[in-house]
Write a structure and sequence with these properties.
- The complex is a heterodimer of chains A (about 120) and B (about 110).
- Chain A has about 120 residues and is mostly beta strands.
- Chain A has no helices and eleven strands.
- Chain B contains no helices and nine strands.
- In chain B, the strands form two sheets. Chain B has a six-stranded mixed β-sheet with strand order 2-9-8-4-5-6, with no helix packed on it.
- Chain B is globular.
- Classes of the chains: A mainly beta (about 120), B mainly beta (about 110).
């Protein structure tokens, strides 16, 4: 079964750091673009970051540039999001998602999603 | 950067009715780069439509996507009870891969 399992969410103070993880199974992880998408409480979806199959290309939404780093370990079928200098507005559920299409050169949307992990930034 | 605006914010319909959801882009784009997702409360999003009009595997044929340029539409031909949810469009022609703000389809 194709599956993504998100973990690492927690309560953290403003200015703190957190590392999210996403474990993949049931497919060849190294063939796919991967993404992080978040959702603030009661709000819509917001794309956060993407990473290409070999990690050679990474893209971020402006609001997290310089604070968040997306990375992957293809040998361990894992995706990560290192979040530093966290702000109250970073609070929400974070989903990892698989890019549609194996070995695609570009990102073409997400076809498999994790269940989400909750990040709460509050003092 | 392409900004997506979805309308209406909420659609109140009865089961069996037709739902028409709109997604307007701030600049012209190929429909190849447009996807639609469904999200139910407490769940992850689910891909419905990609490339503007192609149904994802396992998606019933009552869901269809259309449009070009700046105007895109998701149509649900006959609403089933399980279709009441929030729907998002997403553009993936290049970063940022922005989502629309969503349309909630609720039971009338």
């Amino acid at each position: 079964e194709v599956q993504l399992v998100d973990s690492g969410g927690n309560l953290v103070q403003p200015g703190g750091s957190l590392r999210l993880s996403c474990g993949a199974s049931g497919f060849t992880f190294s063939y796919y673009w991967m993404s992080w998408v978040r959702q603030a409480p009661g709000k819509g979806l917001e794309w956060v970051a993407n990473i290409k199959q070999d990690g050679s290309e990474k893209y971020y939404v402006d609001s997290v540039k310089g604070r968040f780093t997306i990375s992957r370990d293809n040998a361990k079928n894992s995706l990560f999001l290192q979040m530093n200098s966290l702000r109250v507005e970073d609070t929400g559920v974070y989903f990892c998602a698989r890019g549609r299409g194996a070995n695609y050169l570009y990102y073409y949307g997400a076809d498999v999603w994790g269940q989400g992990t909750t990040v709460t930034v509050s003092s | 950067e392409i900004v997506l605006t979805q309308s209406p914010g909420t659609l109140s319909l009865s089961p069996g009715e037709r739902a028409t959801l709109s997604c307007r882009a701030s600049q012209s784009s190929s429909s190849t780069y447009l996807a639609w997702y469904q999200q139910k409360i407490g769940q992850a999003p689910r891909l419905l439509i990609y490339n503007g009009s192609s149904r994802a595997p396992g998606i019933p044929d009552r869901f269809s996507g259309s449009g070009s340029g700046t105007d895109f539409t998701l149509t649900i031909s006959r609403l089933e009870p399980e279709d009441f949810a929030v729907y998002y469009c997403q553009h993936y022609g290049g970063p940022p891969y922005s989502f629309g703000q969503g349309t909630k389809v609720e039971i009338k």
